[in-house]
Amino acid sequence: MAKCIQKERADRMSVQAVREYLDGFGFADRIMEFNESTATVELAAAVVGVIPARIAKTLSFKVAESVILVVAAGDAKIDNRKYKDKFGAKAKMLTAQEAIDLVGHPVGGVCPFAVNEGVTVYLDESLKRFESVFPAAGSAGSAVRLSCEELFESSQAAEWVDVCKIPEDAE
């Protein structure tokens, strides 16, 4: 019970931090909060009402002593060869606790907004297939609709990268 209350409080704080952060870009009013979980691509797509590929999932990795986020289309998968060529290391995802401690958001709500200092954000080319995408907004019950240009601007991404592969039958 106490753990559940603690998680709800952390989610609220994370969404509030994202809301304040996105307000600086004029996007805070686009945050959607749901009673249903959006913790996975499939759940988020069903709740938001879009195809899974339009959910912008944020993957968190440790590269040497640094933390990076790669935001990719919901149907994309990390291509290990491309990832290693780009970042010089094997893809090593953060644990749930590391995501909270090092990124500042809980798993299911990890997003590229209001992240801890020193976290570098990259956007994968797989997103460019869509006019707008829906990343999380700090909790496992939130999303925000942004164009790819708005996502790049508001995430303060370092650059666009090509480190994912998309299914051949992708929409």
How do the helices and strands line up, and which of them pair or pack?
Blueprint: H1 2-23, E1 31-33, H2 41-48, E2 55-63, E3 66-73, E4 77-78, H3 80-87, H4 96-103, E5 119-124, E6 132-135, E7 142-144, E8 146-147, H5 148-155, E9 159-161, E10 164-165
Parallel strand pairs: 2-6, 3-5, 5-9
Antiparallel strand pairs: 1-7, 2-3, 4-10, 6-8
What does this structure look like?
The chain has 171 residues and is an alpha/beta fold. It is built from 5 helices and 10 strands. The chain has helices spanning 2-23, 41-48, 80-87, 96-103, 148-155; strands spanning 31-33, 55-63, 66-73, 77-78, 119-124, 132-135, 142-144, 146-147, 159-161, 164-165. A hairpin with a 2-residue loop joins strand 2 and strand 3. It is globular. Residues 1-7 have low confidence and may be disordered.
| Beta-strand content | 15-25%
- Could you tell me the number of beta strands? 10
Question: Which class best fits the helix and strand makeup?
Answer: alpha/beta
- Mean pLDDT across all residues, rounded? 92
Percent of residues in helices comes to 25-40%
Biggest sheet, spatial arrangement of strands: 8-6-2-3-5-9
- Determine the N-to-C terminus distance: 42 Å
User: Which shape, going by the Cα principal axes?
Assistant: globular
Radius of gyration: 15 Å
Number of helices in the DSSP assignment = 5
Ranges where pLDDT stays below 50 over 5 or more residues in a row are 1-7
Largest sheet descriptor: 6 strands, mixed
**Order of secondary-structure elements:** HEHEEEHHEEEEHEE
